[in-house]
Design brief:
The structure is a homodimer of 574-residue chains.
Chain A (H helix, E strand, L loop, with lengths): L14 H22 L1 E2 L1 H5 L1 H10 L6 E4 L6 H9 L34 H15 L5 E6 L6 H13 L4 E6 L10 H10 L4 H9 L2 E8 L3 H14 L4 E7 L7 H5 L6 E2 L10 H15 L3 E5 L9 H6 L4 E3 L4 H13 L3 E7 H4 L3 H9 L6 E5 L16 H6 L5 E3 L4 H11 L6 E4 L21 E4 L5 E5 L2 H16 L5 E4 L2 E3 L3 H5 L5 E9 L4 H12 L4 E7 L9 H8 L3 H11 L2
Parallel strand pairs in A: 2-3, 3-4, 4-6, 5-6, 8-9, 8-10, 10-11, 11-13, 12-13, 15-16, 15-18, 18-19
Antiparallel strand pairs in A: 1-7, 12-17, 14-16
Helix pairs in contact in A: 1-3, 3-4, 3-9, 5-6, 7-8, 11-17, 13-15, 18-22
């Protein structure tokens, strides 16, 4: 039924037909996620409310912004994308997040938490100024609702003086169980003590409808009908309670494990996240000053064991990346030794606090930055390809890039004694593949993974690029050609002494980051400063947003192309 | 009395003596700000509460974090810095903000809004884990209290399970009158409708004391005594109402004008901000899609007239830089043409939203970035020296730097038709000094301000650097030497065609920004990419945080030294 169903036909469905539709949506979502990976539990929970919205509203004239986008699969399936849905998260396929360039039904791209309310208000204001007739909806989970940006948006609702509907899908879980002040207010409302929480929402200019069972289609149809009436002359918060993973027993019982599901059969390398958790537990056993802060990602970052073993020193503050950063800076000011574990793309949210709180005060905070470089199937909003650039421009910050999980351990051990801000960035999958030539770790010192007297030196940061470099080396060695390979394990500061020895030689740089401001660009600038002429070639990502796809394919396509690099070096060494 | 007074002696003062002390503090603050510039009104309002805190608490064992720091002058005067206070905001003198390196009484540096509550919580947690006895206080104005980071901090108070005192100094004004949801809740509490607001605070784990008259010493002494008792086993919010500018009639009546006061006798150039306001009014008259968003800075940014003339298209959302950015992105998605005016240093807060909401969606948002480059007397936390770097690394974003106010007008006019994200950055003081050689503005095209057949070309971005370049040119022309001067009015994209013509020549770059990731670094990288050899020398700021001081002196000291540049060029041209 799904592939032939036109969005507007849902309005003619009976309740029975809609219930059948919900079952079908569940099946398709489940099967697709098992094939392609993706967000299962949150999408399963949003099925009934999404069907009810199609019944009630007129998309795409009416507009909806899904916060983060983890709940948009049913919406995509119902808005004319069922026939392509099997390409979910694949190169060139359907995105796991709303994408304007995919369908006129997607009016605003999301991927990071907390933007939906601001976005809905901005869209509603545009509608008002244009004198258009349309309903604007923000659909947001309770995890995102803790984010400071949402609070800023709510505070501006009266200032912008416009009407939106906020659907708060409350499943009591962000990725980890939701925590914090607003969550308790919502909980009180759920548990019947509604007065003060509702009053609070009224202060922000919101009329409250709820609590409704978001997995009961009939209740959803009624609730959206009421909301649609009310929102014609005011802003409305519709509070719905859903079961994350609704409809699949395993997912209902284990919502954290099924939040992001890798496709069945995907390889299970040893992850940097596992190493992180082990290292932090070891270090914490030796040093009682060590604390760990996470922003709603403790499982994905490998921190579960640490949180169990050291609950008094482990803090998951919810999706509050900025607060986590200032907490770390101030814990360091108070004499503690904080570690802040986070995904590369989400750390962008704390950019100002890294500058203003951590680095300007030269606080000994260690950032453990996972999912750095191309992250693959999540696409534009999740690529960790800017961090080398935005971190390296900040004074006082040391930026380390381990060549493998073994070196990551070494850097972690080093970090425990390091009295300044330190960022360690690494990709998702990890291996222990390299033999170290020297064992001592010194800030700003690189190491040769392969040293010869060739005119060519490849300087690469991180496992992915060093593996490419070593493979090219193997290939060319078979042709009797040879070159040096340097592990740039500190992208900041650079190894100036090593660079000086390369005067007049060929230098090739490689990194899993955009070119602008990254390793290669910094080396180019440093050589100018040193007054050294080298024949340099930089391989890094072009100045574009990188869409979803396979990691290796995207690397090649966007600027770190193994074949091109091999050919370039091979031609020099003729 | 002030210069001889030791902090601990305040505990022995009578109430009469403390009232005399308050008067003296006011006089010193007023006189000093008239001499040195600084924040007058907010500091005058905080006098009584500060004296009462010294009476009640034991600084520096007890610790206080001033949010932003605009209220710390009395605290500085009472903590052993009265003898040096006449150096306020001068090079090497007392900072206008809390500074750990200035006194053991300053435990945490601030400057940007909303960090104090997180910082207090982190310090308190460190205290707990260390088993120390001390009270931790966050002192925050109602303007900052709207910032999303504060909300994130409040949400984490129960998670970190620690006790702090939050002093909410409510003068009903941030820089512009405070607006938004939380402000209305506070207002209701002030006006007697306390139940729901207080309940809300309790949900966050805060016990509420208030409302107290923050300019009444006796009431403050009682309130802090009560707060100190309570905070031994819980977190407390003490809500005090003060009059911003208290004690100086002119300041009380005109708190916005006296928020930041320039020293008496400082030159009054025509400001970019004035030009911004005029241009936006002109453009808005022609184009009904134009909207303007500000984050609590409309007067300082020159937007007062626009807000009066076009209230339906002008939005001051309070100190919510992230929300402002997403509002702009979504307004653009809805077909409007939004302008976001902000200081360079504060835009750092919206870094992720610039990437994720504005640029990844290629939205036609124009950022008008004031106080770019070295801002001078406000010091480390307010220098706008990172923007060329953190903006240039973002795909789809064009970065323009006008050479003077006249060119700024031209770029503003250009922006109205430009269908992509655009950042325009400019310093505070502005002039119209240059003759343009061409009149058309094309993205990525520079212009020669002086063209000759010299081997040397100076490429500079922005008025300050171009003025230096032209002065050096005048000096060297007297010696019969000559060089080219290029106005790099687009820092991104670079003028690749022009760069190609400089192959083999001497190139000198100058910018009012850090080197890493800035104009010079981008040119270095571009020349590598083009395979062009030039003899390059980059003048930009070193990789350090730049303290307070005079703009010209700091420019010279941190890497853009006129004399050094002149000597370098002069030696080439021998």
């Amino acid at each position: 039924m799904l592939e032939k169903l036109k969005p507007e036909q849902i309005k003619n469905c009976t309740k029975n037909e809609m219930n059948v539709l919900c079952d079908e949506l569940r099946t398709v979502i489940y099967n697709t996620v098992m094939q392609c990976g993706g967000h299962l539990a949150s999408n399963l929970g949003a099925v009934e409310s999404t069907v009810a919205m199609f019944y009630t509203f007129d998309f795409p004239n009416d507009k909806i912004v899904f916060d983060v986008g983890h709940q948009c699969y049913a919406y995509k399936l119902l808005s004319g994308r069922a026939d392509r849905f099997s390409s979910l998260r694949q190169a060139g396929g359907i995105s796991g997040f709303p994408k304007r360039n995919e369908s006129e039904y997607d009016c605003y791209d999301t991927g990071h938490a907390g933007t939906s309310v601001s976005a809905a208000i901005g869209l509603a204001k545009a509608r008002d100024l244009h004198g258009e007739q349309r309903n604007i909806i923000a659909y947001i989970g309770d995890g995102s609702f803790n984010n400071g940006l949402v609070y800023e948006a709510l505070s501006s609702l009266k200032i912008l003086n416009t009407n939106v509907l906020i659907v708060l899908n409350d499943n009591g879980m962000s990725i980890s169980p939701t925590v914090g002040g607003m969550y308790e207010i919502l909980n009180e409302i759920k548990n019947g003590d509604k007065a003060s929480g509702i009053k609070l929402l009224e202060n922000f200019g919101l009329t409250y409808i709820g609590v409704k069972n978001g997995n009961d289609l009939e209740e959803m149809l009624e609730a959206f009908s009421e909301a649609k009436d009310l929102m014609q002359n005011r802003s409305v918060l519709l509070h719905i309670v859903t079961k994350k993973g609704k409809g699949y027993e395993f997912s209902e019982e284990h919502p954290t494990n099924t939040h992001g599901v890798p496709p069945v059969g995907s390889p299970k390398d040893k992850e940097y996240s596992e190493v992180l958790g082990e290292c932090l537990c070891e270090l914490a056993a030796e040093n009682s000053e060590i604390t760990v802060v996470s922003a709603a990602m403790k499982e994905a970052l490998g921190l579960s064991e640490f949180f169990e073993k050291y609950p008094e020193r482990a803090f998951d503050v919810g999706i509050c990346e900025e607060n986590a950063s200032v907490l770390c800076a101030s814990m360091a000011a108070g004499g503690l030794k904080p570690y802040y574990a986070i995904y590369s793309t989400f750390l962008q949210r704390a950019f100002d606090e890294i500058i203003h709180d951590v680095c300007a005060q030269d606080m000994a905070v260690t950032f453990c930055i996972d999912r750095a470089g191309i992250s693959g199937a999540d696409g534009e909003t999740h690529q960790g390809v800017f961090d080398l650039s935005y971190l390296s421009l900040i004074p006082n910050l040391t930026v380390a890039v381990p060549k493998d999980t073994e070196e990551f351990k070494k850097i972690m051990r080093f970090s425990a004694e390091y009295p300044h801000p330190l960022a360690i960035r690494y990709p998702r999958a990890g291996r222990t593949v390299f033999q170290s030539e020297d064992n001592e770790l010194t800030v700003g010192k690189w190491e040769y993974l392969h040293k010869t007297n060739s005119e060519v030196t490849v300087i690469a940061a991180g496992e992915r690029c060093l593996i490419i470099a070593m493979k090219i080396l193997q290939n060319l060695q078979k042709q009797g050609k040879d070159f040096n390979v340097v592990n740039a394990r500190f992208v900041k500061p650079l190894d100036t002494e090593l660079l000086k020895t390369l005067a007049g030689k060929y230098v090739v740089t490689m990194e899993d980051n955009v070119f602008l401001g990254g390793l290669g660009a910094q080396i180019d600038g440093e050589l100018v400063k040193l007054g050294i002429d080298c024949k340099i070639k930089n391989f890094a990502y072009r100045d574009e947003f990188i869409p979803q796809g396979g990691v290796a394919a995207l690397q090649s396509e966007y600027g770190v192309n193994c074949k091109e690099i091999e050919e370039y070096i091979s031609e020099i060494l003729v």
